[in-house]
Amino acid sequence: MICYNGQFTIFSVGAILTIVLLVVRLTIGIYELESAGAALLQTDINYRNFVESSLFGVFIEQNGRLVYVNQQVESIFGVNPGQMLGKPLANYIAAADQGRLKEQFLSISDVNHTTRLHVTGIGAKQSDLYLEMQASGAFYEGQPAISGTLLDVTESKLSEQRMIQSEKLSVIGQLAAGVAHEIRNPLTALKGFTQLLHKSANGNQRYYEMMLTELERINYIVGEFMVLSRPGQLSQLVSYRIGRMLEDIVPIMESQAILTNVVIQVEEQPNVPNVLCEVNQIKQVLVNLMKNAIEAMPAGGTLQVCVQEDEAKDVLIEIVDQGVGIPQQVIDRLGEPFYTTKPSGTGLGLTVCFKIIQAHGGILSLRSEPAKGTVATIRLPSEGKQSSLV
Ligand code: ADP
Ligand code: MG
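Above: the input record for the complex with magnesium ion. Below: its predicted structure, written as tokens.
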């Protein structure tokens, strides 16, 4: 019995010790687990805050659909919260870049592979966005995905383009100033005497007509050169309504448009402010852009001219055609003097337009989709804003 009791005591102490040890281990285990869980939660919170408030746009795409975008992505594209989820990122990229984007995404097969590319995004109101993108393979909820970042470099890209444009224009201006003045006087004499000979000549009428047409063309080019050679400052600024200019121009343009079945529609929002401008110069810009639009629709179509005021109190004029469009390699060269794709073009129309709009403190931009059409947008500061320029 004593022995039995003794055995009992030894076993009991052993069992109790084991249980105590187990409980201690369990408690330590639970504590460790809780600390690991807390650390994980903290990392998760830190990571979320970092991604959510990042100045970079962050996205995750899985099976060709966006499953996560941070606020910055939504603000870059100007969409409402949650609007992009479930759609492919390619929906927000210009058609010309979609193929390249899909190709790059397909090539990202493992997490170690990263790709970088420049793409053109489509912002709110269909404006172009210049984006720098980095993307790599990732996991989302245990499944393979693509994660990436987006940086909106539109502002710096546009100011770089404007700087290059203005440098080009100032060089051309200096050149044009010298040439145009030298040519104008002898040209007037040549034209006058040719007209005189034409009237009194008995034969060769066709040759005289050809000479006069060619002289007229030189005269036109010299006229465009004169605009380019003028200094950037404007002298005779008047307050004018763009709609009123269109009332003067459209009937003249219609006589050209009718020949190729082009219909001109003008939409003017009520109460658009006036602009301070040299009326003839802005008219020349409108004529040049409308002429290009008509020439882009040899088989007919609609040419829309919309005038409105935007949020920044600028006057926005859009000249929209349904023409052949402009391929990317041509877009990059627009505004370059003598650059033309037309057999009888001068390639000076847009150069003059850029120069005039720049002198008025405005911005001219062209957006185009081949085979669909082109939108030329002029943004001019309204009278109130512009008076500070004078
Ligand atoms: P030009 O009209 O004499 O060719 P511009 O400077 O007016 O010179 O235009 C330069 C080029 O830009 C054109 O030759 C054409 O290729 C392109 N372009 C301009 N506007 C348009 C448009 N609305 N649609 C298609 N192409 C255009
Ligand atoms: Mg032209």
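Notes for the reader.
The chain has ten helices and twelve strands.
The two ends are 118 Å apart (CA to CA).
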